[in-house]
Amino acid sequence: MSITLHNLGFPRIGRRRELKFALEQYWRGELTQPQLLTVAAELRRTHWQWQAEAGIDLLPVGDFAYYDQVLTLSATLGVIPPRHRQGEIDLDTLFRVARGRAPSGQPAAAAEMTKYFNSNYHYLVPELTATQQFSIRWPQLFEEVQEAQALGYQVKPVLLGPVTFLHLAKTVGEPFDKLQLLPSLLQSYQQLLARFAELGVEWVQLDEPALALELAPDWQQAYETAYVTLQTVPVKLLLASYYGSVAHHQSLISALPVAGLHLDLVTAPEQLAPFAAALRPAQVLSAGVINGRNVWAAELDLLAQALAPYAQQLGERLWLAPSCSLLHTPVDLTLETELDPELKARLAFARQKLTELQQLQQLLQYPTSDAAQAIIAHCQQRRAQQAAAVDAKVTARLAALGAEDFKRQSVFLQRQVQQQATLRLPLLPTTTIGSFPQTAAIRQLRNRWRSGELADVEYTRLLQQITRDTIERQLKLGLDVLVHGEAERNDMVEYFGEQLQGIGFTRFGWVQSYGSRCVKPPLIYGDVSRPQPMTLAWAEYAQSLTDKPVKGMLTGPVTILHWSFVREDLPRETIAYQLGLAIRDEVADLQQAGIRIIQIDEPAFREGLPLKQSDWKTYLDWAVAAFRLCASVARDDTQIHTHMCYSEFNDTIEAIAAMDADVITIETSRSHMALLDVFEAFDYPNEIGPGVYDIHSPNIPTVAEMVALMQQAAKRIPLRQLWVNPDCGLKTRRWEEVEPALRHMVAAARELRRQLG
C-alpha cells in the first residue's frame, strides 16, 4: 500500500516575510519589477523544495499570489474592472485593483475587499457585469507550472472552482443573476484545464469551499452543471472543500464526475464515513487531517487509529493532506529559538505540518516499525506533559457571572442624552478609528527597546513625544474626538496578549492577512486573566494633553479570540468570556480615570460565524454576550464605541444591534455606502460612523468625494446618528497621505454642517 501525500497550498510570504518587504519596496519605487519577480521565484523554489523534501508527492502550484489568489484568478480570466484596465493585464494591473494604484498607470478606486469565508484572510471581490466576457488573459498559472516542472517536480495546479468563484463575486451595473454567466465561465475553465493537460499535468485541484454553505437549489444545480461540463477535460479533477462539513451535500458531491474528493476532517471528522461509503471504485479520497488553521501539533497516533480502517479499505486511493491550505499558518517553527521549549514542543507550523503528514503516512503504512513506535511514544509523552494551565480564580469568576453582568445600566436613548450633555459634540462628529502611522522611526525605537539597547524610561519618554505630536496634529486638523495613536502597540491583538496571563508569543509566527499585511497571532495556551492595567497610562497621558475627548482604545474579546491560535481543550465560548472579563477590568479602570469614550474593537466579530446559517445562533449568542460582558461595566455617560471592518452586515444586523454599543464604525467607502442599506432597512437604533476614507489605498480622497459619500449616508441614517471617520486604523499609511486625507474629511464634515444649516 502506498499512500499519496499532497498539499493544498503553502504560505507565500516567506518565513522572514521576504515577499512582504519586496512588495512594499516595489510599491515605493525602491525595487524594480524584475527584482520583485526574482524574489518571488526564489520563494517559490524554496517552498517547493521544502515540500518535496517532506515527501509531498504532488506539489501545489497556483497557491502563490503577489496580492491575493482570487485576484490572480480574476486576472487569469480577464475579470478586471474597466477603471483598472490600462492596456494589457500586467502585474501593475493587479496592484491597481488591490490598492488603487501601482508604480505604473493611473490611480483608480480599489476593488472591494472582504473576508474569505470564515478566515482572517481577505480577498479582492471580482466584479461581474451582465455582459461579462471571460478569456485567458494572464499567464501566471501556466508559467509557474512550467517553472516547477523545470525543477523536476510533479505538480498539482490549485485554483478556485468555477461555482465558488461566482459565489464570491459581486455584480455591478444593472442587477442580474450571476449564475447566468456560468456557461461562459465554464468555457474558460475548460480552456484553462486543457492548457494544463498540454503541459503534462495529471491532477488539478479545484477548490469549492462554498460547498460548506447551505446552498439554494439553483446553486446546487450549478455544481452539477459545472462538473458534468468539466468532465470532458483531459486532466483528473480533485474537488476540494474545507472550513466545514459538506455532509449536507453528500449525495450531490458524491454524484459529481470528479476523480477525487478532498474533505476537511479537522472541522468535521464525522463526514469521512458517509463519503468513503459512497466512493466510486476508482475515485480518490483525500483526508484533510492535519489542521491547516491552527498551530498545535497533531495527535498522530490517534489520527492513525481513526484512519487505519480506511487505509485498509481504500489502499492507494486514500491520500493524506492538511485540512486546507497552509496559508493560515506561520511558515517555520525552527526559527523560534527563544520560545519556551515546553510550549514549542506542542506546536507545528507549515513546514512541520508537512513532516506530520509524512509521519502519519509512516504510521499507516508501517505501524509496527521502530519509527512508528517512536512517533506513538512521542505523542503520548506530549499529551502527558501538556496539562492545560488552570487558574482557579478565573474559573470561579466565570462561574459567578449573572445576567446583570451582561447589560448596560440604561437603554441607549437614556444613555445618549447623558453622553451628549457630557461630550458636547457637534453634528456629524469627526474621529479616527484608533491607530496612526507606525513609521520606520517608531518600529526602530521598538526594536531598540526590545533588544535592551533602550531603557524603559527613555523608551516611554520618546513614545510620549510621539503621542504628543499625534495629539497636536489631530488638534491642528480640527478632529472632534481624538485618539492617542497607539505608537506603543505592535499589533492590536498582540499588544494585549503580551500583557495577559495564559498567552504566549512567537517571533516569526507571521500569517498573511491581505497583500503585504501580515499578523502574528498570539498562542492562547492557558486560562486568561489580566494581572494589571494594559492601556491606562497611555490613555491618561493622552487625555492630559487636551480638553477634547480622547478615546480609550481596546481590542474586543471576540477579535482577540479569532485572531489568536487558540487552545483546543476548552470551548471557544469559555475562552471568549475569559477574555471578556480581562477587557471589562480595563474598561472599568479607564472609566475611573476619566476617559469618557472607550472603543472596544471587534473587526473579527463576523469572522467567527459558522458557515451554515442554521448554526449561527449559538455562536452569535455567546459572541454578543462576550462583548456585552466588557461594556456593561460602563456608566451611562461613558460612550462605548466598537469598530467592524470589511464584513457584510445584512445577515447579522440583529446581533450587531444586540451588542448595544453606543457608536459603531464600519467600512463603507469601497462599497460606496452600499453596506448602509441594511442599517436603514433594520432601523438601527444607535449611532453609526460609516467610513469615508479608504485607508487600504494610498489615494487621497477629495472633499467632494467624502461629501458625496456622507450625503448618501444621510439618506439612509438620521443625521443625529451619523459620525464621520475613516474605514479603519491608519497604522499602515504614511503621514503624507494621512494628514491631507483627514484635512479633507474634516472639511467635508464642516461643509455638510453648513449645507444642513
What would your notes on this structure say?
The protein is α/β, with parallel strands linked by helices. It has two domains: about 5-385, TIM Barrel (Alpha-Beta Barrel); about 390-755, TIM Barrel, CATH 3.20.20.210. Helices cover about 40% and strands about 10% of the residues. Helix 23 packs parallel to helix 24. It catalyses: 5-methyltetrahydropteroyltri-L-glutamate + L-homocysteine = tetrahydropteroyltri-L-glutamate + L-methionine. GO terms for molecular function: 5-methyltetrahydropteroyltriglutamate-homocysteine S-methyltransferase activity; zinc ion binding. Its cofactor is Zn(2+). Belongs to the vitamin-B12 independent methionine synthase family.
- Give the proportion of residues in helices: 40-55%
- Distance between the terminal alpha carbons, to the nearest Å? 80 Å
In the CATH scheme, the class of the largest domain would be Alpha Beta
CATH topology of the largest domain: TIM Barrel
Net shape: globular
Structural Rg: 26 Å
User: Main β-sheet: number of strands, strand sense, barrel status?
Assistant: 8 strands, parallel
With strands numbered from the N-terminus, the spatial order across the biggest sheet is: 1-12-11-10-9-8-6-2
CATH architecture descriptor text of the largest domain: Alpha-Beta Barrel
Q: Give the number of helices.
A: 27
Detail the poorly predicted runs.
none
